């Protein structure tokens, strides 16, 4: 399975129409076939970064499925929808991603909801890392062996779980780059992270924060809130 | 598959050698993909040590197969060595627009032996309209391509080799790309040094004036083929 990850710079005045285009257009249109499904519709939480940014993640079964979807958008039955969306966003920046070997699975594409069933809004921390040249393989292994396990420990500083770990497909994104979609299960640790210094035991020698500096020192976190109708919460 | 490589300067020759001697050769072992262009961003006209490569793939399944070979298969070692010679690579999948002169490539006919030839220079224009993408592509068709194709050879600055749009989800939307071969370097020199100013608001009917109705942001890159680039 592949994942189309898009960041949309939405026209503020038309934000509601933009969301409706995905809920009432993209999601049901994809449901008419078996190639692709909308998984997540996220708003970048106001107060944590750029305004009117939406992140969508669409799963496609494989490369051939993606190519069929791309043809529908460029010149097929989804062309009019895409043209409509052009008026609702300033731009979108997309990447086509593949799961890391140790990434959790999102399950079967056939089981993804295609009706807007409302649920509680959920928060995600999306981390994107840029390992040093030639270090992406080492970084991916270390993130799986050390970071992922540390998140699952009872003593974890953050209460969140990796729902999807992905990297760009060659030719359809940036390399080296790794993105982790992490679901927050409790907000107080996030507030503590945002408002207090990181304790030395988390950053000192032997810690993930310290040792991983050999592999990368640049990353970006986005705080994303899943829409109440987002197929995956 | 359009890729822009930010190469580590001291490894620039080694990076190019890997592309010529190993990447091009590895692709030639199947009919799924071929390297078409290896282009150096001309120094003095933009960022240093940037390389643009365009690799043609037969279809979506062929691209996925190639990508998986690079990530976990027989090309992973080569991909790792390329990674070690560059800071990063930014890729996008591009497809010809409806009027592009280049629509299909016979992959089996693309040279893979690194034969040498004269250098060529391309002007790659990437535009970002503030109108729907389709309107921009139509403008290029009706007001640029239709005009440029009629320019007599002796006056021709650019030959529009291809026009692409970004395939869904693999880059920026709205974005479209013109790949134009520079036919006359003297005329190019004239374009770069001309002090003549055309006020687009008082130059009605021109492509430049009409173009402002759909976009005012684009970027031109002057790209020079390597002497062994399969396409020149």
How is this structure best summarized?
The complex is a heterodimer of chains A (233) and B (232). Chain A is α+β, with helices and mostly antiparallel strands. Chain A contains 7 helices and 9 strands.
Structure description:
The complex is a heterodimer of chains A (233) and B (232). Chain A has 233 residues and is of the alpha+beta class. Chain A has two domains: 2-120, Alpha-Beta Plaits (2-Layer Sandwich); 123-224, Alpha-Beta Plaits, CATH 3.30.70. Chain A has helices spanning 15-31, 63-75, 79-86, 136-152, 188-195, 200-203, 208-211, and strands at 2-10, 36-44, 53-60, 89-99, 123-129, 160-168, 174-175, 178-184, 219-226. In chain A, helix 2 (63-75) crosses helix 3 (79-86). The mean pLDDT of chain A is 95. Chain B has 232 residues and is an alpha+beta fold. Chain B folds into two domains: 2-94, Alpha-Beta Plaits (2-Layer Sandwich); 121-224, 2-Layer Sandwich (Alpha-Beta Plaits), CATH 3.30.70. Helix content of chain B is 29%, strand content 28%. Chain B has six helices and ten strands. In chain B, a hairpin with an 8-residue loop joins strand 2 and strand 3 (50-57). In chain B, helix 2 packs across helix 3. The relative contact order of chain B is 0.20. Strand 7 of chain A pairs antiparallel with strand 4 (86-92) of chain B, so a sheet runs across the interface.
């Amino acid at each position: 399975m592949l994942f189309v990850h898009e960041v949309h710079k939405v026209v503020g005045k038309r934000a509601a129409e933009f969301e409706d285009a995905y809920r009432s257009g993209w999601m049901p249109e994809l449901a008419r076939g078996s190639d692709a499904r909308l998984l997540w519709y996220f708003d970048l939480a106001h107060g944590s970064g750029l305004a009117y940014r939406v992140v969508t993640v669409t799963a496609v079964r494989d490369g051939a499925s993606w190519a069929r979807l791309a043809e529908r958008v460029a010149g097929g039955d989804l062309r009019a929808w895409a043209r409509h969306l052009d008026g609702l966003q300033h731009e979108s920046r997309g990447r086509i991603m593949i799961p890391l070997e140790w990434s959790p699975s999102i399950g079967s594409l056939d089981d993804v909801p295609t009706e807007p069933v409302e649920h509680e809004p959920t928060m995600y921390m999306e981390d994107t890392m840029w390992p040093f040249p030639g270090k992406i393989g080492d970084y991916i292994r270390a993130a799986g062996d050390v970071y992922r396990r540390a998140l699952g420990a009872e003593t974890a500083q953050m209460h969140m779980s990796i729902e999807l770990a992905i990297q760009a497909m060659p030719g359809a994104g940036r390399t080296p780059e790794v993105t982790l979609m992490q679901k927050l299960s409790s907000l107080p640790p996030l507030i503590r992270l945002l408002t207090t210094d990181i304790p030395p035991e988390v950053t000192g020698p032997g810690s993930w924060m310290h040792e991983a500096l050999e592999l990368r020192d640049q990353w970006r976190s986005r705080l994303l809130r899943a829409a109440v109708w987002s197929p995956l919460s | 598959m359009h890729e822009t490589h930010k190469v580590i300067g001291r490894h620039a020759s080694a990076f190019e050698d890997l592309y010529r001697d190993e990447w091009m050769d590895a692709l030639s072992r199947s009919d799924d993909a071929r390297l078409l262009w290896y282009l150096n961003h001309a120094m003095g006209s933009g960022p240093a040590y940037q390389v643009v490569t365009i690799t043609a793939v037969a279809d979506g399944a062929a691209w996925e197969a190639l990508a998986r070979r690079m990530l976990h298969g027989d090309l992973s070692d080569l991909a790792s060595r390329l990674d070690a010679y560059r800071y990063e690579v930014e890729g996008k999948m591009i497809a010809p627009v409806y009027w592009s002169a280049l629509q299909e490539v016979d992959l089996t006919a693309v040279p893979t032996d690194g034969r040498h030839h004269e250098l060529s220079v391309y002007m790659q224009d990437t535009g970002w309209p503030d109108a729907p993408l389709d309107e921009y592509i139509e403008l290029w068709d009706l007001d640029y391509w239709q005009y440029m194709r009629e320019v007599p050879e002796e006056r021709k600055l650019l030959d529009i080799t291809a026009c692409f749009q970004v395939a869904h989800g693999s880059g920026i939307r709205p974005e479209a790309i013109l790949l134009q071969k520079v036919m006359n370097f003297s005329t190019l020199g004239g374009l770069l040094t001309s002090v003549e100013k055309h006020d687009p608001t008082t130059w009605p009917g021109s492509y430049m004036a009409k173009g402002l109705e759909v976009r005012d942001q684009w970027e031109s890159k002057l790209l020079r083929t390597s002497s062994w680039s399969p396409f020149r």
